[in-house]
Design a protein that fits this description.
Elements (H helix, E strand, L loop, with lengths): L3 E8 L4 E8 L4 H15 L10 E5 L22 E6 H4 L2
Parallel strand pairs: 1-4
Antiparallel strand pairs: 1-2, 3-4
């Protein structure tokens, strides 16, 4: 495996999805933070960076632990991930 994988990130909150390369040697929380920052820059702060977000595998429904390292999960090229704010999960 190389040092990055290409994933599709689905963000239902804004009805958007993006194809992104993410590093396999980073923890989930760092990857989420980078995704949120990139989306905020691309879409003019459309996401609330102060909310907590959860990352799920679209196919399996698995919720990824904040401290998991990407390479030690089932995240590989073409994996579809869903980013949900905990604020929206409570509604």
């Amino acid at each position: 495996m190389k040092n990055k994988v290409l994933i599709k990130i689905i963000i239902p909150e804004i009805n958007e999805n993006f194809d992104l390369f993410i590093p396999v040697n980073e923890q989930v929380w760092k990857v989420k933070k980078s995704i949120i920052k990139a989306v905020c820059e691309l879409r003019n702060d459309i996401l609330e960076p102060n909310f907590k977000y959860a990352l799920f595998n679209k196919e399996t429904g698995e919720l990824y632990n904040e401290n998991d390292v990407i390479i030690r999960t089932d995240i590989r090229n073409v994996t579809e991930l869903v980013l949900l704010s905990e604020h929206n999960m409570k509604e």
